[in-house]
């Protein structure tokens, strides 16, 4: 993907993520059971991604690709499901702003640690005063959103 499209694409994904959290909260409210709501949500994702894979099955990993994959790499979806489940449970009680704000701020803080220490095989990007200021502003902004 051309770098000029990366930021608008990510921005659009963020808008969809906020809408998806609210949609999931309504699904949970309607179905009354957060496990059922999460299961239905992920079944739809599985159907969509399976259909897309059937349309575009290439490239496929080589044996070497699979052998070099860290054992924990496939667990990313389960880790992401925790955020989805938390959103389903809390968005009706706290509102979209606080739930998404806290989720995104926690994501930023964890991402800064992952970058700084090069965790999960990521390239290192050292913490610096401007990154620290950005994290502090995120915390302050979310605090204001949640409080008011």
Explain this structure.
With 148 residues, this protein is mainly α. The chain has one domain (3-147). It is 79% helix and 0% strand. The protein has helices at residues 3-31, 34-55, 63-68, 76-94, 96-117, 129-147. The protein starts with a helix and ends with a helix. The mean pLDDT is 94.
SSE topology sketch:
Elements: H1 3-31, H2 34-55, H3 63-68, H4 76-94, H5 96-117, H6 129-147
Keywords:
148 residues; mainly alpha; globular; 0% strand
By DSSP (H or I, 4+ residues per run), the number of helices equals: 6
The run of helices and strands is HHHHHH
Quaternary structure state of the chains depicted: single chain
Shape: globular
Low confidence ranges = none
How would you sum up this structure in a few lines?
This protein has helices at residues 3-31, 34-55, 63-68, 76-94, 96-117, 129-147.
């Amino acid at each position: 993907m051309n770098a000029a499209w990366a930021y608008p694409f990510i921005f659009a994904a963020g808008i969809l993520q906020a809408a998806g959290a609210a949609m999931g909260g309504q699904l949970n409210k309607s179905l009354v059971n957060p496990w059922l709501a999460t299961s239905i949500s992920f079944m739809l994702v599985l159907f969509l991604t399976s259909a897309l894979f059937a349309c575009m099955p290439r490239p496929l990993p080589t044996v070497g690709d699979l052998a070099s994959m860290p054992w924990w790499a496939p667990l990313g979806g389960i880790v992401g499901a925790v955020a989805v489940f938390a959103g389903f449970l809390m968005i009706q009680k706290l509102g979209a702003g606080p739930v998404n704000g806290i989720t995104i701020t926690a994501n930023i803080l964890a991402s800064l640690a992952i970058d700084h220490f090069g965790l999960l095989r990521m390239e290192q990007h050292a913490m610096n005063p401007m990154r620290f200021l950005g994290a502090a502003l995120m915390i302050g902004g979310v605090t204001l959103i949640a409080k008011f």
